[in-house]
């Protein structure tokens, strides 16, 4: 497995010689308005992609499948929808299939529980995109465990620390865990993705796994940056287990 962080939750996974684009947000910096109700008007994405237009063209020409945890704009944006061919294989949660069809995509494979694609086992996991009424409004989200050659990678998706995450860790015992940090939130309510406290819980619950934190410094409602997360990991003595890759970094080889 080779995994590269592009920006936010957008990752480029090479597994069993297949190229999977995860949660693509491909627009240039400032292409979209700020997320409403978050206390600032900073346009999204808040940073550019770490690759130039030519490199992005090359990357998109090599995609074998797109894996979507859900359809919020910072995981499946208009540029991705426009740039990817409509017959591209889209792997998604059941809740999103109809919306994808409405936007013209024709090669959709729903992952109900699990499937085997090109020798790769992909299992869908649950999550909670926030708490209370806000969590309900944020909708259904999924994570995925991908396994090949005895290696198991858990992409947790947009979720807080919750029973669904614990269940995934217990059931699949992943070797590598990728969590979405940043403590994004609205002006009222709790974080809708993992904050530092949640990240530390993941590390302590799965001490034998390597943990990577993405989804940082790219959307206007994030509250915690890379430096804060790294400092918390150092203070907790977890810097040898949990890592915070930069945009563009290959963090799994």
TrEMBL record:
<dbReference type="InterPro" id="IPR036866">
    <property type="entry name" value="RibonucZ/Hydroxyglut_hydro"/>
</dbReference>
<keyword id="KW-0378">Hydrolase</keyword>
<dbReference type="GO" id="GO:0016787">
    <property type="term" value="F:hydrolase activity"/>
</dbReference>
<dbReference type="InterPro" id="IPR050114">
    <property type="entry name" value="UPF0173_UPF0282_UlaG_hydrolase"/>
</dbReference>
<feature type="domain" description="Metallo-beta-lactamase">
    <location>
        <begin position="20"/>
        <end position="215"/>
    </location>
</feature>
<protein>
    <recommendedName>
        <fullName>Metallo-beta-lactamase domain-containing protein</fullName>
    </recommendedName>
</protein>
<dbReference type="InterPro" id="IPR001279">
    <property type="entry name" value="Metallo-B-lactamas"/>
</dbReference>
<dbReference type="Pfam" id="PF12706">
    <property type="entry name" value="Lactamase_B_2"/>
</dbReference>
């Amino acid at each position: 497995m080779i995994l590269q962080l592009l920006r936010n939750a957008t990752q480029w996974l090479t597994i069993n010689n297949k190229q999977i684009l995860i949660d693509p947000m491909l627009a240039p910096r400032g292409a979209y308005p700020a997320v409403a109700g978050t206390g600032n008007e900073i346009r999204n994405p808040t940073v550019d992609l770490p690759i130039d237009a030519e490199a992005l063209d090359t990357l998109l020409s090599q995609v074998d499948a797109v894996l979507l945890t859900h359809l919020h704009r910072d995981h499946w944006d208009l540029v991705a929808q426009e740039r990817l061919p409509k017959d591209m294989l889209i792997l998604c949660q059941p809740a999103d299939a109809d919306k994808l069809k409405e936007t013209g995509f024709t090669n959709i494979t729903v992952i109900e529980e699990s499937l085997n694609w090109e020798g790769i086992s992909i299992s869908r996991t649950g999550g909670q995109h926030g708490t209370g009424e806000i969590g309900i409004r944020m909708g259904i989200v999924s994570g995925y465990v991908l396994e090949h050659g005895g290696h198991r990678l858990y992409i947790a998706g947009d979720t807080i620390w919750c029973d669904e995450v614990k269940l995934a860790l217990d059931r699949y015992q992943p070797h590598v865990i990728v969590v979405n940090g940043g403590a994004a939130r609205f002006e009222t309510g709790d974080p809708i993705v993992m904050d530092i406290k949640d990240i530390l819980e993941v590390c302590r619950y799965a001490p034998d796994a390597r943990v990577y934190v993405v989804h940082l410094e790219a959307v206007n409602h994030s509250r915690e940056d890379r430096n804060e997360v790294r400092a918390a990991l150092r203070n907790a003595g977890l810097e040898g287990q949990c890592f915070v890759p930069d945009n563009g970094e290959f963090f799994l080889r």
